[in-house]
Amino acid sequence: MDFSFSEQHVAVRETVRRLCETEHRKLVVAAEETEILPREVFARWGELGLLGVRYPEEDGGSGLDKVSDCIVREELSYMSQGFASSWSAHSHLGIWPIWKAGTPAQRERFFRPAVAGRKIAGFALSEPDGGSNIRGLKTRAERVAGGWKLNGSKLYITNAPIADFLLVAARTSPELRGDAISLFIVELPAKGMEISKLRKEGIRASETGLIHIEDVFVPDDCVLGERLGTYPVILDSLSENRVGVAANALGMARAAFDAATAYAQERLVAGKRIGDYQAIAHKLAGMSAEIEAARWLVYYGAWRVDQGTLDSATAARVKLVASETAVSVSEQAIRIHGGAGIMREYPVGRIHRDALVYVIGEGTSEVQKNIIARDLGFKS
Ligand SMILES: Cc1cc2nc3c(=O)[nH]c(=O)nc-3n(C[C@H](O)[C@H](O)[C@H](O)COP(=O)(O)OP(=O)(O)OC[C@H]3O[C@@H](n4cnc5c(N)ncnc54)[C@H](O)[C@@H]3O)c2cc1C
Known about the structure:
The protein is of the alpha+beta class. Helix content is 51%, strand content 15%. It contains 11 helices and 9 strands. The strands form 3 sheets. The chain has a 4-stranded antiparallel beta sheet, with helices on one face. A 3-stranded mixed beta sheet has the order 1-4-5. The structure holds flavin-adenine dinucleotide. Flavin-adenine dinucleotide is lined by residues 89, 93, 122-126, 130-132, 156-158, 200, 203, 208, 357, 360-364, 366-367, 370.
């Protein structure tokens, strides 16, 4: 594969880097402490066209590609995974299905304002009884006059405490078949929907909610695509987003590596830079190789999305490798820092906490291995 970033890709990267350095960096420290994401970042991302990089211009996007989307993710994640996770839940999970399968009216009412940063979106799939077994989800949708009534609960939903609307997955029949699962667009606040904010160890700057759903009415025109059985859209969305969050993981791995390299250059022990001890230099060498491998996989995955040839097993491989790389690299970065690695004034502890989120969210590493094993012909 002949691969290099185009001038446009480089320009996207520079825009996000500048935004992070000049505007976001000062917001991140407070957001991590207070666990409150400043809402205004969505408007700023919208203004710069960063929420819609991978969507066509005629739909309100910036008309670029998945490679650009991954560049935005990598750079935001380099600065703050909290910010980047909220960006991801909004600009992919909460709106991609609407772009892909929504009616023209739903695109106009939800997708366009979200891409412009005027509305915040989220995606509510996971439930208290298990996030890994999505086909077994229990939230029910019952037919009522003029629409549907939802009952159930959702857990660990990114952006739920700040969202203007959520895409909620619910079952329209008790049968454990994919075509019994559909997506419902719920505008917030909604009568009967109670959202409580969760306190987290990782990605503290991103707001995450537990949702109690009791007799929430959804009109017919807010059923995604005004049709039932949109489970395949969920699966396609998750596959593409696995490549996306792999780029998030890459950004975190790079940030941890850069911090560790800087520390290894300046920290003296017994009169010698620690980087000149072979044990530390070898760690850094291995970390740089892991990151390079993850980078190639991430942008290969993005390229496959742009070619329209991404399959679920490839997405799983990309996500598995990149997320485990972020965990491994950030852990080694802590070790290189010694005691300083445990101190909050250094970023590596936070990066490691944040990296652990991505061996769980978007399907755990075990779930990715199940997908890959099935691709290899095993039942798993
Ligand atoms: C910070 C954060 C943000 C999130 N944001 C969202 C969001 O915006 N929207 C959303 O819908 N969800 C979201 N999630 C939920 C996330 O997708 C789930 O946490 C994840 O899918 C795992 O589900 P679970 O937590 O219920 O773990 P469980 O399913 O209970 O799994 C527990 C353990 O069992 C293992 N396991 C389960 N089944 C199998 C199996 N078949 N084979 C092998 N091992 C298995 C898992 O790998 C894991 O190690 C978020 C999670 C976090 C932590």
